[in-house]
TrEMBL record:
GO biological process, one term: regulation of DNA-templated transcription
Protein's name according to its UniProt entry: Helix-turn-helix transcriptional regulator
Keyword ATP-binding on entry: yes
Domain of life, source organism: Bacteria
GO molecular function, one term: adenylate cyclase activity
Organism: Actinoallomurus iriomotensis
Pfam family, one: AAA_16
Keywords associated with the record: ATP-binding, Nucleotide-binding
Biased composition range(s): Basic and acidic residues: 931-948
One CC-aspect GO term: cytoplasm
InterPro entries assigned: AAA_16 (IPR041664), P-loop_NTPase (IPR027417), Sig_transdc_resp-reg_C-effctor (IPR016032), TPR-like_helical_dom_sf (IPR011990), Tscrpt_reg_LuxR_C (IPR000792), WH-like_DNA-bd_sf (IPR036388)
Amino acid sequence: MSPLPAYCTEEAHGPETMRGRAPEWNAALDLLAAAHEGRSGVLLVEGEPGMGKSRLLREVTRTARARGFSLVTLGALELGRIPLVESLLSALGEDVVADGGGPSAEPDRRMWRVERIRAGLDERAGTGPVLVSLDDLQLVAPTALVTLRAWISQLAGRPVAWLLARSTVKVGEAAGGLFDILEYDGARRITLPPLDDDALTGIVIDMLGAVPDPRLAAFVGQSGGNPYLLTGLIAGLRGGNGIQICNGSARLVAVRLPRRFQAAVRHLLDQLSPQTRHLLTVAAILGRSFSPDAAAAVLGTTPAAIVPRLDEALSAGVLTVAGEELAFRHGLLWQAVTDAVPVPIRNALHRDIGDVLFGRGGPATAAAAHLMQGVRAADSRGLAELERLVDDVLPVSPRTAADIALRVVSLTDPAEPAWAVRTLTAVRTLIEAGRLDEAAGLTESALTQPLTAATHAGLCCLRSEILHMQGRAAEAAADAATVLAEPGLPDRLRDAAELALLNVQVADRDNTLARQHAQAIVEASADHGDALVTGAFITLALAAWDADDLAEGLRLAHEAVRRAASTDAWCLHPRMILAMLLTDVRRLDEACSVMASAGDDTKVRGRLVWAAAPAVLRARLHLAAGRFDDAIAVAEAGLAATSGPGPHVLMSSALGVLAVAALRSGDPNAAQRYVDRARPGLSEYGSPHAEARFALVTSQIAMARDGAGAVATALAELCEQVPEHSWALVSDPTAAAWLVRTALALDDRARAEIVVGAAERLARHNPGFPTVAAAAEHARGLLDGDACALDRASMDHADPWARASAAEDLGALTASRGTGSRQSAIAGLDQALAGYDGIGAARDAARVRRRLRRLGVRRRHWTQGDRPVSGWGSLTDTERRISELVAQGLTNRRVADQLFISVHTTAFHLRHIFRKLQIGSRLELARRVMEENRQRTPPDGDRPDQGGRTRVGRSTAGYPERDAPSATVRP
């Protein structure tokens, strides 16, 4: 058997060969072997243009010649000029003109020629095997194809190998019908598929004598596995110095499509009808993917009228089906078709397409993309359409809206009256898209132009917002103050300046000024718009929260939500603020309800820089409920969804959730990595409350890794801040207990007393908040060794981790009191273990098991750490829930709605599910879920519930009133 050939071009080193065609090559060798053995055979080769049909035929012919075959070969050049019968007569050495004394009548002459060909082939077959290789049969007339079938049938008993090839460029042509018939008669049919990556890489190596680097390999991969396009691309890049070869490696240095490649694309497209080429030109300007009805609308016809052209492009492999649209199958082919359209014509087509899409009421983003490229400076109607599109596109894609607004400004002369309004729109849209640096640059540039007082004030207001988001509070306040000092401003602008100033004041460490300012706004609410009044109520709510008046804080936050319902007051996202406060006091059901009512409020009505806010709040909800895996997934997805330099307080909140979740899941090193990500810039962008919370988790991580001695300095600062700002105590019901436990471990009872005093004061002032009372009981129980207080805390904490923590403290305290309390200590530690295991707090559960072992008790492990790294058993509870819903046929959006998570989070979990189960599709996942459901056994009814409330025969009677807590320190 001959060696497998490899694809190459005439410029390559070595003989012309082929790559990636092992099955096809073996089929051809089988055909030749059959003829050698005296049997006839037919091999049908078909494929899209450029897939290598002609090259395969040439290689087979070369091999057949070497094996002593008599050859009768015809290619596209012969069949394109001369009919099949005449071409075969010539190939057989017959005189086509004189016909050697044949009959004079035309029908008789044709029959004589047909018989002469049959006889000639039969004569050659009498002396040895014959190969008849006919290429591009799609060019042959239907009557000649009927004759070809007759020859094959008549010579079926002779050693004739028929190698027939056709291009699938046209649907319904006669050669396709012949192939169907011959296959039915027993012929073998092969279709040349696109080459795989290994074959493409081999061709590049053959042509260049070097291995392509990843960038070059990715670039040539866009050829779609078409060897004709690939060889044209590589040859063009090499000839145009687009590839640099050094030390056996080929590197792409220019990504422009070479002329040789564009010529190769033109050659392929020239095989299509003019009408189809026209359609492809319009389709290419529409985009790499497009809908048939949009293409028909631009062409001024109906989808039904262009179906034949689309079918031709599909059969040629130029287009492919992509969901509900059609698409150019190869990215480079699409680019080549687009580049072939002259720029003026391309711009005109973009303008025409934009008008059509805009008029049809389709997606605003699609119309905008074309209008931006087609509209010119003098096109006032087009610019007006783009202006209208900014508001339409903004809720869907803030980035695209910003691009449109910038394009409008760039096409507007500063001397035009519309320039000022368009510039303000562009700056505002850039802010909402999170592109703060660009917004700042455009603002500074605009402020150098001659402006009206109103325009100048509007730009200063926007610059104040930008500066505030960039952490430049003093400059932001100065800009807002400048606007407010301007006489005669419209109420709308004055409100905007007031709100900008209020935002800056809220972030200040001493919020007294913000509270006074907000109170003045509320008292004069009749003189202000709802947006400003909403911001004032939010400011007062946060101030009340910081002053330990939780009921008033919630009341004011609810009022802010009510005010915002009738206005575009996205300024501080009142629902997000309310949900945050409710989560702090562990009213999780209410927080979930508020989040559900907010929907995608921050994306639809707010700034893109705040787009992560819902994810951060949902992550906090998961953390508060003890769902650490979910908290991590949601927070990571939230950070991934946020782009650009957003408010760092939001980033720090997300990373703080991630750090706590990682720590409680038992991975302090991962928690430290999250802290390190958040530390740069925290003091610049973060609020004092965010900084206090972050300092707390940072200290907890440090102690978990290095012991209590590593946090002595940080602990002193945290304890000293608690009386003045108790935000950390409110937002984390375990904070007071941790501070007290750590202070006692460091023999610093004075600071422990400060924390307990602050926690009890917070509880006294807020009697309607059980979680605050439980936190105070927990802290007091640790300080005084009060078992009853710890027992009440272990029952009353709303946070499952906090309940387990209080139970552990109770068990440790009881164990320290000697053998008489052993059973009570074991009961408390069992409750703690059940609680930690139920929420996957592996590190904490391991610590409790160690305490139990010291009491002579061993408990079996049921922690997350026992999950295998792959397989069904490796899935988390959330991953299993998502698997079940996907198996039911739900989309990512519907899964997200069912589980109250985002689509980003669902996709995050699905990627992990596919990796763990080593599958690649939703269908495989559905099959796996069905298998697991069939094999599932009833769960162990003896395991404790997730909340850890199960009591194990404990009694609080007989506990001494005071005793020292265990010296074991934990996060």
